[in-house]
Input
Amino acid sequence: MPILADALEEAGCTNPEVLLHCREPGVHVRGCWVVDLVLGKG
Output
């Protein structure tokens, strides 16, 4: 997920909630709200 945060930031994402969530330690599972947001599911 940290790599996703870097890619989103390079693409122009400035949403601190999204970037912080992606960089938080821990396991991200299917249904993660950030992944759903990126994939347009929501």
Observations:
- The chain has a mean pLDDT of 90.
- The chain has three helices and no strands.
- The two ends are 19 Å apart (CA to CA).
- The CA atoms of residues 18 and 26 lie 15 Å apart.
